[in-house]
What does this fold into?
Amino acid sequence: MKIRLTTLSENTAGKPGFSAEWGLSILVEADDHTILFDTGAGDVALRNADRLGIRIPSGTPIVLSHAHADHTGGLVPVLKRIGNTRVMAHPAIWEKKYTRRPYEDQAADISMPYERPALEQLGADFHLSAEPVKIAENIWVSGEIPMVTDFEAIEPIFYIKENGAFRPDPILDDQALYIRSNKGLVIVLGCAHRGMVNTVLHARNITGEPRVHTIIGGTHLFPKTEDQKQNAIEALKELGVQKIGASHCTGFPAAMMLVQAFGDKFFSNNAGSITIIDDADTTDD
It folds into this structure.
């Protein structure tokens, strides 16, 4: 299996002529399957795909990591481009999501910015599951991720609204994509709201593969305490992670900690970045 991960939308443009936005979208090509993981916040994913000369095939399945607008805002332009397709997500993808950041006076709506009927009219065929979904022999959508570590927690700035009142959002819809390769797991993260280490442990349980070759995507380390960041990094090292490509919600201070911990196993994953893992190559990438 040859795995190709092309980052189409991310906070930072990695090459001249590419666009950046606060968001994430990664085109995954593996095991003769093409999957679009998240759509970014707007049309940046498509503009960068055009810049790379990539034609996202009609009907390419879409996996949504969670409902937040910076991961789902690109759904309309993507659907207009690729037409009828399956969209895989957690049932909580339709919850109204809010955040109350320290620099804002009131809660901000960060929900998916579209209604379901409008998306279905554009060709979205929603497949919602809280359980893991096996897309192919070696590819899974994680489903709901159990929180089992004692150092990972969801920040108390995220809310859902019920009966007109805010309550903390457990972000049950947080999902990842797992690919089992001959070199170990390749794990694609959206934001890892329910914990990067929890996400890895869940991947090992679902796939039966203990080795972790590559983690790529948003780690949500930027709002964590120094102890939480350090505990997460130490756990990843103990899990034997071979490569880590940090994106989106990692933050520069946390990225520097990852660089110090992983050295040349770390890479910065920006808009325009292409990562290839080739099973046929028996040596490490």
Q: What stands out?
A: The first strand starts at residue 2 and ends at 9. DSSP finds seven helices and 18 strands in the chain. Helices lie at 44-52, 69-72, 75-82, 116-121, 196-207, 226-238, 252-262. The chain has a mean pLDDT of 95.
